[in-house]
Amino acid sequence: MKKVDIACIIDDDPIFIYGTKRIMEMANFAESIMVFKNGEEAITKLSPIMESNESVPDIILLDLNMPIMDGWQFLDEFLKVPSSKKVIIYIVTSSVDPDDVERAKSYGEVDNYLIKPIKADQLMELMNNFQKN
What pLDDT sits at residue 132? Predict the structure, then answer.
């Protein structure tokens, strides 16, 4: 099974972060995992990395409802940053709002929209789908 170099979790929920990291570690999914607690922290740290094309994440798990900068604001800023590497983005949120689901579809970079809480088997399936690409 192909291993991801860098996975990134952008979420303010420490329980979700802990559980997701554990599943990724147990599945030997990624060489390293970056964690950011809100969109502003993520864009501040990821922008210079992306512009220099060093250590760009392969996959991002993005929450929508976060303080300071939410997932939509992050996504809009992130897509402005030039990068030669395609980053696959999965929205993982508690929002069941049909408007959010439709909005996510308008972003070609968003691969899937998952409702929390996600189970280990859902995360494993997501990781297996990523590794097939």
Answer: 63
